[in-house]
Amino acid sequence: MADKDGIRKDHNYHLDIPMKNEPFTLRGSNSIAWGMKNRFSNIFNPDTNRTVMLAVDHGYFLGPTTGLERIDVTIVPLLPYADTLMCTRGILRSTIPPTFTKGVVLRASGGPSILKELSNEEIAVDIEDAIRLNAAALAVQVFIGGEFETKSIHNLTRLVDMGNRYGIPVLGVTAVGKEMKRDAQYMRLATRICAELGASYVKTYYVPEDFETVTAACPVPIVIAGGKKIPELDALKMAYNAIQQGACGVDMGRNIFQAEAPIAMIQAVRKVIHENMKPEEALKVYQTLKKEKK
Ligand code: 5RP
What is the CATH number that goes with domain 28-41+48-260? Predict the structure, then answer.
């Protein structure tokens, strides 16, 4: 008989409970498909809609930069404290344990080294390989105002089309060239263009003046890069201000892995991002953990 269960007397259909239809509350993401929401939930903590992304993809144009000489030694111990890891497929396959089950944001553009014109990038990953690697998202550099602006935008839109086919979000990374002014006007332009052209979320740099206008004008989540290494308190202040002004997290590299105590630093950053801890308090957390070598 097909419906053997039908003879049981003890079914409970909970007829008095309306079916839940939970909204997906991550900024600008209500209308995306299930697979994309699921991947996003492995990037942004669903409890806070925020993320601490650990960025270690710098080698794709910089080579073994300070702190990333031995990713197995310096970065793998940080993984338990990151919500998400951003890296290249080369590092992922060779060095990141496959038991790492949080989201991986795969660097999907590349080409020129630090010795050449950086904006001259191409798409550097096939969508099939991203799927094989179980990527939670793809990251592509966008050089607004750069020499190869249109080409980098085209990389973004092609990756968005590929990602949409398989439910993989795309992170538009706004790259700031040497000659470009890092101010709110520029960041508004660059982040909005990424969002308009389909990026599921956008990475930018924090600017001290009017950053809230950058987040307000971008309809998808914004995460900030950490940028060059600065004193720990300043990095925590930057993360705090960005969050209070509408960012949904950090995609931080050097200010974590170049800190004197990287494991302590990433835990302090978590406090700021997920618990709204004030930077001065988070610095105390950092100092305590550093002393305890935790
Ligand atoms: C390189 C990147 C990096 O991931 C990004 O800059 C974040 O790292 P950091 O906090 O060190 O700036 O996108 O192009």
Answer: 3.20.20.70
Taking the whole predicted model, whether its pTM rises above 0.90 is answered as: yes
290, containing H or E segment: helix 279-291
Per annotation, catalytic residue among 20, 102, 203, 278: 203
What phi, psi does 128 have (nearest 5°)? -65, -40
Domain boundaries, the chain: 28-41+48-260
Element (H, E) at 71: helix 71-74
CA 156 – CA 171 distance, rounded (Å): 9
Catalytic annotation present for 294:
no
Mean residue pLDDT of the chain comes to: 95
Q: For the chain, list residues with pLDDT below 50.
A: none
Quick check: 239 and 224 in contact, CB under 8 A?
Answer: yes
Class of residue 1 by CB neighbours under 10 A (exposed 0-12, middle 13-18, buried 19+): exposed
Q: How far is the CA of 28 from the centre of ligand 1 (A)?
A: 24
Which residue puts its alpha carbon closest to atom 12 of ligand 1? 227
Task: Report percent pLDDT > 90 for the chain.
Answer: 92
Does ligand 1 come within 6 angstroms of the Cβ of 57? yes
DSSP state of 116: S
Collapsing DSSP states into helix, strand and coil, what is residue 14? Answer: coil
Contacts of 167 (CB under 8 A, 6+ apart): 33, 34, 35, 36, 38, 39
- Distance, CA of 66 to CA of 177 (rounded, Å): 21
Q: How far is CA 68 from CA 62, 95, 176, 253, in A?
A: 10, 12, 22, 10
pLDDT of residue 210: 98
Ligand 1 site, residue 252, Cβ cutoff 6 A: yes
Written as six digits, the tokens of 223 are 């995460």
